[in-house]
Amino acid sequence: MDHFLYHNGALYAEDVPVAEIAAQVGTPFYCYSTATLLRHYRLFDEALAGMNHVVCYAMKAASNQAILKTLAEAGAGMDVVSGGEYARAIAAGVPGDRIVFSGVGKTRDEMRAALEGGIRQFNLESEPEMEVLNEVALSLGVQAPVTVRVNPDVDAKTHAKIATGKSENKFGIPIARAREVYARAAQLPGLRVVGIDVHIGSQLTDLEPFRLAYRKVAELTRALREDGHDIHRLDLGGGLGIPYTRSNEAPPLPIEYGAMIREELGDLGCEIEIEPGRLIAGNAGIMVSKVVYVKSGEGRDFLILDGAMNDLVRPAMYEAHHDIIPIIEPEAAAEQRPYDIVGPVCETGDTFAKQRMMPPVAAGDLVAFRSAGAYGAVMSSEYNTRPLIPEVLVKGDQFAVIRSRPTFDEIINRDTIPSWL
Length: 421
Ligand SMILES: *Cc1c(COP(=O)(O)O)cnc(C)c1O
Prior knowledge:
The chain starts with a strand and ends in a 9-residue tail after the last helix. Strands 4, 14, 15, 16, 17, 18, 19, 20 and 21 form a 9-stranded mixed sheet that branches. An 8-stranded parallel β-barrel has the order 5-6-7-8-9-11-12-13, surrounded by 5 helices. The protein is α/β, with parallel strands linked by helices. Helix 9 links the parallel strand 12 (233-235) and strand 13 (271-274). Helix content is 28%, strand content 25%. Pyridoxal-5'-phosphate binds next to helix 10.
């Protein structure tokens, strides 16, 4: 459920007509709903009720300061994967002890910044990283709280580019080697083992892969405790999928996910951390774009939009589907026609949808890409020198621009000319 609905024939973001925002900020732009963000955060929080838990929002899904602040004020912690994200989380007022640091390539500088600014735990992904964190922590005279991310070798049954829990993926250490790696961690005076971490992929539409992975984590918890490690925290990653089409997909609900966690891990007495990103932000955002031209090609018609793959790369990168709807509600009886919906970028990959059935659309009409809140704005670029598009946050009947569109001068002036030119 989200808060982008038609009222009286027009698409609204909560209580604001999308056309009104477009008139003020121009197209294309991203628009987020506060109520949807909070609703999704609370669904996870409630799903884990009764267990000691923290929901650490995976902020790589959508990391605008206003989004982080909205979620942090509701009680969310953050999962960060870079020094930049760590700095963003701190800037949004998230306390260090609610920030977990994931990622396979943490640098010494990133480790130092997080140890100095405060951190809940590092999720370690390799032995070399473990040795380096130990050195950095000792150089600062502190102990770094750590989990080791284990790779349980389960098939997440999701898109290959976002599956992370198979043995051939670059993430974590093979679960079969975990005891050995934890033994080494226990020898390093700069580290303090607090638990285990696992994250098997994104956009999972079935609970079974999670269940298999968590079962292996439960087994490992017992084994590591036998080895003398103080395992009291389990970070279970993110990855719960969302319905990208309203018709045929019904991924498991957070409440079902929570019940499964309780079943598999509830008797271990561990604090549970989860790191959802997509399910919190995905359906909380739309991208609004204008039809620039309707072009008739040979045997097919194209809708050429002012938004492009640099603004929303998911279709080009993952063959992802987004529902695309006009912001004026079509008549129920309106006849639909197939269009290829494309952006203006000079790449054939700049195609949002092929042969998509759409009601009649004309140049100048606005359309909304649904479910664009996660991995949308954060993955955008200025390819073709197209300015990063604005982000807008709606709350009830209010809206605010939370990132403005840069001018061409601002873009150009980021370049510098060497003295010899
Ligand atoms: C990307 C990622 C997440 C979030 O995944 P979603 O599918 O957006 O929920 C959580 N944890 C880690 C370590 C990640 O890399």
